[in-house]
Each structure stands twice: as C-alpha cells, then as structure tokens.
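User: What would this chain look like folded?
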Amino acid sequence: MSLEISVCSGDYDRIQALKSGTVAIEGCTLSYRNHHPAETFRRLFDDHEFDVAEMSFSSYLVALGQGGFPYRAIPVFLSRVFAHGSIYLGPQSTISEPGDLKGKRVGAPNYHFTRGLCVRGLLADEYGVAPGDMLWRTGGVDSPGGLGYLPIKAPANVEIEPIGAGQTLSALLLAGEIDAIVSYRDPDIFSQRRPGVRRLFADFRPLEKAYFQKTGIFPIMHVVGIRETLLVAYPWLAGAVYRGFAEAKALALPRLVDLDALAVMLPWLVAEAEATIELMGADYWPYGVAPNRATLEAQTLWSFEQGLTPRRYAPEEIFTAMEPEMEAR
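Assistant: Here's the prediction, encoded as structure tokens.
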C-alpha cells in the first residue's frame, strides 16, 4: 500500500517533475502544495503542518539547538543564493563600503533567517565586520510583522530590538531611522527605484563569482525536512524522498541550455547557464553532503559563532541517515 504524504515547497523548476507526477517518490502518493517560503516556514515551524517540506536552513539549525523539533533534514537544497546582493541602503545613508556598517542600525525581517546568517558570515570573514558591530532592528520589510516564526533570544553581545508594531523597515530606511536593510528579496522601495535606494554592492555578480572561486561556498538557503515519526516508521522514506527530488532536478537542468524554446523569459538564458557551468561545473546546484561540505561547514560555523546554536554541528549530524552513496550524490 502506498504511503500518502503531504509535500510543500516553492514552485521551482527543480520540483516540477515531482509536482506533475513525471517523477515519483517510490512507495508514496503525494499531495503537493506550493506556497511562498515564508508561508511554508510559518506553517512548518509553528504548526508542524506538512510531512515533507522546504525549510529555512538557518532556522532548522536553531530548532535543532532548541530541541524537540519534529523534523529531520535531508541534503536537498531547494534554494541557494549568494549574499552580496542582499544589503540595501537608503537615500540618507552615509555607508559606501562594508566597514561603514560598524555602529549602524541594520534592519532585518528576523535575526536568524538564512540570508541574514550568510550576510553576517560574509561581512565577518571577508570585511572584518562582526555581527555585534551593528545594531539590529527586526520587523517587516514592506508590511508590518516580519518573520515571526521560531522566536529566539538575542545572542550575547548583539543588540536586537523590534521596530514598532505598525512600522516597516522600508519606511524607516527612507526616513533615515535605520541605515541599511538585509533582506531575502528586494524591498519594494528598491524595485520601485526610489531615489537614493541602492545596494551596498551595486555590481555584486563579479564579487560573488570571486567569492565562490576563493571559498567554494555557494550558500544554502533552504533544505528539505521530513517528519521524524515517518522516518522512524518507514526507514526507507528518506532515501526515496531524496531520490525523487534529485531526479526532478536532473530533469530541470537541461532545459536551461535548450535554445529551442527558452525555459524562462531571459533572452540570454543559455549563455548564462553555460557561463555558470564553466565557473561552477556541470552540476552547479548539487545535492548531498560531500559536494557541499565547504558550504555546510561554513554555515554551521557561522551559526555557532553568531550565537544561534549552542555548538557547531558537523554536517553529518544535521541530516537524517541515508545510504552513503546517496549522501555523496
């Protein structure tokens, strides 16, 4: 008899074959839903709603440290983004280089979201700006609220204060009441090209390419989690879910270099994909522990250094056990 499981993630190219049924998770019947990541995370971390779901990687590490979280991750990385392009400045900002962030008020939707983890790791490792050098203000970027799931205590030597219940970080940035925003997406005031709103790293692409060449780090934003009671009851499930996501990704990759009909609305999509392969290799978005070890070790170290986890986790500790050959894929 097939195991019925609920699955939730963003509506990415790399999950389409699973969603459509072109690829199956062996032994399972899927009820596949798509939500924006913030909605998925709220329903996962607060309500434990789904059997298999996309999870914020940093929040998952925090939940592991707190204990009692009923999900375990597999090394499937549905979202990855370099961090340089995620720092935004306002029209009254006097910041022109990373070192200028010291002593400044920096807004974020919460302190432990993964983009924030990676921005702080980048600033500390590459530019000598420690998390405690900045004054953190948390709240919603474009609408009040922010990312309220999985509340945490402020780490030692870091100032974190929520903004007012009816305030937004974007409005505070325009008014000069904060100096920068770290966000997982472009604030509306940036997308609308409001005068003076800009990125700290305006030309971030060459910086990110150089960072990858130097460190081998391609930051992981989101992992896939499976309800732990199911893993206990069905020991084969982790491997089956991993294989399904890996096969779906493998079907999506060739479309990015297909000139017959472009997969997305980017005129030079194929040239972009070919340049990425030249820099990062044919499987530039790998799943599994072994090909991602540099990234995993960096992010678990940042989580510990930034006071989000009680100790540094080894990559093997944070993922549920699977066959060794599968973990290496």
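The mean pLDDT is 96. If you want, I can go into more detail on any region.
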